[in-house]
Structure formats: structure tokens, C-alpha cells
Amino acid sequence: MASASLQFFAFILALFGVFGDIAATLLPNWKVNADVGSNIITAITQMQGLWMDCTWYSTGMFSCTLKYSILSLPVYIQAARTTMVLSCILSAFGICITTVGMKCTRLGGDTDSKNNACFAGGICFILAGIFGLVPTCWYTREIISNFLDQTIPESSKHEPGGAVYTGFISAGFLLIAGVIFCSSCFKRQQGAWIYPPKQHHFPSTEQESNAGYSLKDYV
Fold this sequence. Notes:
With 219 residues, the chain is of the alpha+beta class. It has helices at 2-26, 75-101, 111-148, 162-194, 205-218; strands spanning 31-33, 43-48, 52-57, 62-66, 158-160. Helix 2 (75-101) packs antiparallel against helix 3 (111-148). The radius of gyration is 29 Å and the shape is elongated. The model is unreliable at 189-195, 205-209 and 215-219 (pLDDT under 50).
């Protein structure tokens, strides 16, 4: 019962991780401007994301420009696009697989099949967490290095936006959920390896009768 409750808790964490991962991938505020300088009257916030750049004006208007060209983008943005999409796909696969393998569901067949499904889903969550953690760390490093660069003007410097923090938290949720699913299955398998079932060997009655017959003949 405790293992089933722990798996359900990990499944809830994985759901939050999947939704946060998708939101972080689509949000345009991966980095926001630190200081708009002389344009403070006209532009409130300038944001840049993986797929579009947006500007929020003081008049209430909100305009966005899609990034159509892929080759013209920096390497870290191209890598972030690829890894975040892979993270979303793997986490979605993990949700489907662990739904079959969880103990509180009636899917997946026998116990061994459900344990294997949970282990496979946990691996998907761990990989999704790693794929989600790498681009957020790389993106944050680029923002901080540009912010500390003295040759870059103040109007061109940015700070990490809400999408970066959402990506960090979602990756942590996915990693924790994956570790819980894998450890819950590994403990059961490890216990079976350490304490194998005892096999009792009983002598055959036929052998006893034959042995008794031979002794009588020789006596």
C-alpha cells in the first residue's frame, strides 16, 4: 500500500512536470530586458523566447514576432528547442507507460509486467528531466555571461524570465518522479535476487523402496 501511494505521488509530480515542461517550451519569456533605457515610456517589457520575441507596450498592446529562420539563431537556442521538445515527448511517453504499470491501476497484466512498465516510465521521466535541465542551465549561463559583459550596452542586457524558472522546476519534478518509479521497482527485484524462494527436495519413495529391496536381497 505504501509503494502504491508513493507511485501515485510520483505520478502527480510527473504530471506537474509535463505541464510545466510544455509551458516552458511555449512561453516567450525565456529572457526579459533588464533596462529599456530611453524607451521606458513606449515599451514596458521586451521578452525573447525559443520560438518568438514579444514586446508589451504601455498602451496595452502586445506584439510578437516569430523566429522563422533556424540557422540564424544562436547555438544555445537551437539546442534548447531540440532538447525541450524531446523532453516533452519523453515525459508524455512516461505518463502513458506509468499509467499502465502503476499498482493502483488494473492495466498491464501481471506484477512483473507492471514493474517493468513502471521502470521504463521512470527511465523516460529521468531522461526528460535531463533534457529539460540542460537547456535551462545553458540558457541561464548565456544570459548571465552577457549581463556581466562590460562591452554590451545596458539596453541589450537581459535577465532570466519566468519560462527558465518553470523549466528548472519542471525538470526537478520529472527527475524526482523518475527516481521514485525506478527505485520502487528496483527494490522489489533486488529483494527477489537476495532472498530467492527456498526449494525443498524430498527423496523419492520409489528410490527408498528400491534401496530397501536391494538391502534385503543382499542380507
